[in-house]
Fold this sequence. Notes:
By secondary structure, the chain is mainly beta. It is built from three helices and 16 strands.
Amino acid sequence: xxxxxxxxxxxxxxxxxxxxxxxxxxxxxxxxxxxxxxxxxxxxxxxxxxxxxxxxxxxxxxxxxxxxxxxxxxxxxxxxxxxxxxxxxxxxxxxxxxxxxxxxxxxxxxxxxxxxxxxxxxxxxxxxxxxxxxxxxxxxxxxxxxxxxxxxxxxxxxxxxxxxxxxxxxxxxxxxxxxxxxxxxxxxxxxxxxxxxxxxxxxxxxxxxxxxxxxxxxxxxxxxxxxxxxxxxxxxxxxxxxxxxxxxxxxxxxxxxxxxxxxxxxxxxxxxxxxxxxxxxxxxxxxxxxxxxxxxxxxxxxxx
Length: 304
């Protein structure tokens, strides 16, 4: 996801070069950024900023910062352009995040180039009920149109719910229900349940694991992912380089993917890049880049 709008356009969206995996993609997957992809999509237990808006809105209360994100991406398999912007503020009593994502692709069918577009925008809100329990919700509007046979246009509203349990200052559990209610059902925004664990084992090391299930119709496929981040601080301690790696398995087709990423974070801004390669079930490949610009940042609320 995603001077501030122009610069933000270089941020939470990702560069993507994807192989034949487009058939498995949906409107929710298209909003994932490089930090999520690099660790095998395992962020539901510790999602913040735009990642919280996309995967677990309750995570907005995990930190206290104002951050603008944005980016641009390209997916080679269907010549897709991906654009996303977001503005998230968790410094107040009710943290919130505005976001907008666009995906426009040109899949090939029998030598003909057809067109498919998705618009998605909304608002995510979070609340710390007690220091250990966070809840959140996302309201979003989507509009999907396609020239592909068997893909009817759809538009309407969908709603996500999320919760995070802070076991300690270092360990948290997250769960979310995505597209739980929708004004019009569409395969582009399927109902899903997900959960994960995030463990900050040391000052510079974090590990996470996630799982997600689709609930619509006969598609009860699941995907499991995990990864880690090693944060190498600079000499002054005000900036550093996150190094990430992860893996993801989707039992729909027996797909396995490996991922990795690198970034730079300072007091005022950060940049992240990530790549993912399908090693079983196909030849999908993604490359993503994102940028963030920070406003006021305060210490995260402690567990009491």
